[in-house]
Structures are given as C-alpha cells and as structure tokens.
User: Fold this.
Amino acid sequence: MDLSIVMVNFNTRELTAQAVSSILECSPKLSYEIVVVDNSADPRQSYRDSRPNVSVLGGVENKGFGNACNIGAKLSGGKYVLFLNSDTLMHPGTLEECVAYLEGRPEAGALGERTLLADGTLDHACKRGFPTPSAAFYYFAGWDKKHPGSRKYGAYRASWLDERSVGEVDSVAGSFLLMPRKVFDEVGGFDESFFMYGEDLDLCYRVKEAGYRVVYYGKASVTHLKGQSGLHTRSKTVAFYFYDAMRLFYRKHYAKRYGILVSAAVYAAIRLKYRLTLAKLKREGIT
Assistant:
C-alpha cells in the first residue's frame, strides 16, 4: 500500500466526515487507506464510517493528539504515513503529488504542503522555523512583517520562502504531515508528553536531528478550517496546552544550549503570554 492517512476524531464528528469525504471525492490515484482514531469525550461525537478504504478505531482513551496518531500509525500499513487534521479539505492531486515528491528523494524525512485557510490565504503554520529565542523575539516584535524576505528576521514563519515554492524548512504543520514510515519509526513517532500542540515541531526537530530534510511543498495544497478543532476554539484548557507545549519544547531542545539567564527569560515570557491570554478570555466572558 502506498499511503496511510491517519486522522484523529476528538468531538469533531461532522468535520471528520467532511474531511474523509473530501479525500474520497478526490479519487486519489494511488493505493491508500484512511485510519480514524476516535478518542472523543462526547459519545454523541463518536465517528462511524463503513465506506471503502476507511477504518475506525473507536473508544480510544484521550491521551493527547500524539498518542492517537501513534496508535493510528501502528494500525496502518502504508509505505508513507500522512497525519491529517479532521478540519481539513483535500484538494485534487495533492496526495499523488506529495507522495511522488518523496518517492524520489530518500533524504526527505517529512513533507508539508501549502495550507490555505477558508478565505484562501496562507496558514503560516504550514512552513516554520524552530522557535529559538531570537526567532521568537523577532516574530513577537513584528520584525518578520517588516523584513519578510529576511532569513534572520523572518525565521519563525519562514516568510523568506515563497508560498508556492518548494524548499527546506525547519518544520511543517501537524495538520498535514507526510512521512516515510521508516523515518517515522526510526525517530520514535510522536513524543506523547506533548498532549496538544508542539508535537509537530518536536517531531520535525528529531527528523532533522536524524539527518533528514523537512520539505515545504508549495505546489500542492489543502484547505484548513482552522479554529474548529484547536486553539481558536478559545478555551482556558486549550490555552494551557498551547503554552505548555512551548515550555516543553524549549526545555527539551534548547534549555541546556542557552543557559540559565536566557532560559529564565524565555520561561517568563511564556508565562506572561499565557496570563495575557487568560486575561483576554476573561474579558470576553470565557471561563
């Protein structure tokens, strides 16, 4: 089998059905399967599907996005594994183009495509640099917008790389993350200590550590209905996991490199951003 598409359904039954249908309607010209791991907390949102090429593992305990993806990958059998969000819409030809690109490039360990928001604009998370202290500072200070063509100031959002081009980046997004199975297995899959958010950054970091390239492939695209299954659902719980992922990633990959003073400043900045987010949610009446 060429491709296994792994999706997680957590209380998004209608979105998942829409995402699966969009894949089937594209009639991909390769052998594939869709594996849906259902870890919904709400029984009314549990997903069922008996269509060809689709299998569903229900009743899975919710131990986070990475955990569910790891389970789905183990159940699948494709040469390539695509981790795909439930709030996406597949575009014709995307699966074939992306798999074909990896087929002839064994040095590529992960690939993401041009992810578009519902309004047709780019979802900047689909091509990113790692959040080093300097890259994060330039991003939050808005210097990336003032110098979009600069590899230095535009490092975090990889703004120097045209959205329709193909090039190496630090990380692509977990909303569409395609990997050769052997690379996924070699690096140990998703780190399940990242409950929600940051697991894609961490995985791409380890892919590059293992000597492979992470590729942004801007010639193919999907639509991401962003905000319907993640941070923009605007809850305190989601905000906690988002900022906790920042802390975990920095502690795992950068704390020893940058030392006590820089690390203290980074942790303080993360706490401040988290508190500001909570304050904003409170003003909006979200408790």
Notes: The longest strand covers residues 213-224. The chain has a mean pLDDT of 94.
